[in-house]
Amino acid sequence: MNEYWPLFGLRLAFRDVLLRPLTEADLPRLAAVLPDDVGHDPRLAMYPSQTYAANERRLFCQGYWKALGTWAPESWVLHFAVVHEGEPVGVQTLEGDDFPALRTVDSASWLVPGVRGRGLGVAMRTAMLQFAFGELGAVAAITSATTANAASLGVSRRVGYAENGLSRIVDTGGDVVDLQHFRLTAGDWPGADVTVTGFPPCRPWFGMAG
Ligand SMILES: CC(C)(COP(=O)(O)OP(=O)(O)OC[C@H]1O[C@@H](n2cnc3c(N)ncnc32)[C@H](O)[C@@H]1OP(=O)(O)O)[C@@H](O)C(=O)NCCC(=O)NCCS
After folding, report:
1. Residue 1 pLDDT > 80
2. Ligand 1: which of 79, 143, 155 to mutate, judged by most atoms within 8 Å of the beta carbon?
3. All domains in the chain, ordered by first residue
C-alpha cells in the first residue's frame, strides 16, 4: 500500500514517542479507548439511535476515512497514531488548509488518560511542529483550546506558541465557551532533534517536487 500512499511510511521519532500515520488497523483499538473529553465538531450528525460514546467512536472512524478520501496537496489532514512503549496511545492531527499558499498548519491531539501528564503531549506536538517547520516549510502554526483545558493550554505554552486572541464558540456539549487561540511562527521555533524518515516519496502529496 505504501507504493500508492507513501504517507503510510512516514515516521517522526522524538524522545519517548513515535508518530506514524494512522491506519485502518489502528481504528478498532483507538476507537475502543477514545476518551470522553476529546470532543468532536458539533456540526457533525449524531445518530439518535446510538449512545453518545458510540456516536463519537463512529465519528472518529469517519474522520480517518474522510482525511484519506479528501486528501489534496492544497488542503489535507494528516492523523498520526502516537506510539509510546510500542502501543498506540493517542492521536496527533496536523492540518494544512490551502497549505501551498498559506503555509500555516493547525493541530489537534488526544491521549488516553493513563499516559497523560508525563510530557507525552509536549513531545508529540514538538515532533509534529519540527516536521511542519522543517520538511513542510510551514511559516506558522496555529492551535486553540477552551480556556478550561489546562493540559492543552499547557502544551501550547510550553512549546512556545504566543496567545493570539479569544473567541466564543458552542462546544460539543452545546455550551458557549471561550476559545484561546495561539500562533507560533517559524522564526520563533527553536528547532528540535526529531528524526523524520520516509518523507521524500511523500513530497508530491504536499505539492512539492518529487
Ligand atoms: C491535551 C493532552 C494531549 C496533553 O497531553 P499531556 O501528556 O497530558 O500533557 P503534558 O504532560 O505534555 O503537559 C503539558 C503541559 O501542560 C501542563 N499540564 C498537563 N496537564 C495539566 C493539567 N491537568 N492541569 C494543568 N496543567 C497541566 C503540564 O504541567 C505541562 O506544562 P509544563 O511542561 O510547563 O509543566 C492530553 O491532556 C489530552 O489528551 N487531553 C484530552 C483531549 C484534549 O483536550 N485535547 C486537546 C483538544 S484542543
Report:
1. no
2. 155
3. 6-38+45-199 (3.40.630.30)
